[in-house]
């Protein structure tokens, strides 16, 4: 009978600990989520500002280098790396 009373007595304490742990976890995750959101928004604003700088160039203000940069395909280095990878696979396949 004593153990039954003792276990019933500790249940509210365990529930309180569980609740406080859950509240702490939620608060920590909320802080992490807000920090990540703020970082993403800052990066997006920086990217948008850089994009607007390039887009705001008029044909009079743009140099040949600026035009070539805008016309060049993105990720040029990745295409070369993919070709190198394919070339390395070719001997293994044949």
UniProtKB/TrEMBL annotation:
This is Uncharacterized protein. It comes from Arachis hypogaea (Peanut).
């Amino acid at each position: 009978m004593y153990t039954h009373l003792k276990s019933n007595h500790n249940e509210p304490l365990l529930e309180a600990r569980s609740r406080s742990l859950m509240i702490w976890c939620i608060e920590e995750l909320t802080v992490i989520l807000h920090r990540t959101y703020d970082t993403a928004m800052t990066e997006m604003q920086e990217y948008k500002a850089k994009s607007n700088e390039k887009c705001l160039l008029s044909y009079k203000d743009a140099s040949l280098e600026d035009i070539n940069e805008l016309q060049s395909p993105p990720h040029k280095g990745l295409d070369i790396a993919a070709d190198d990878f394919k070339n390395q696979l070719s001997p293994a396949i044949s």
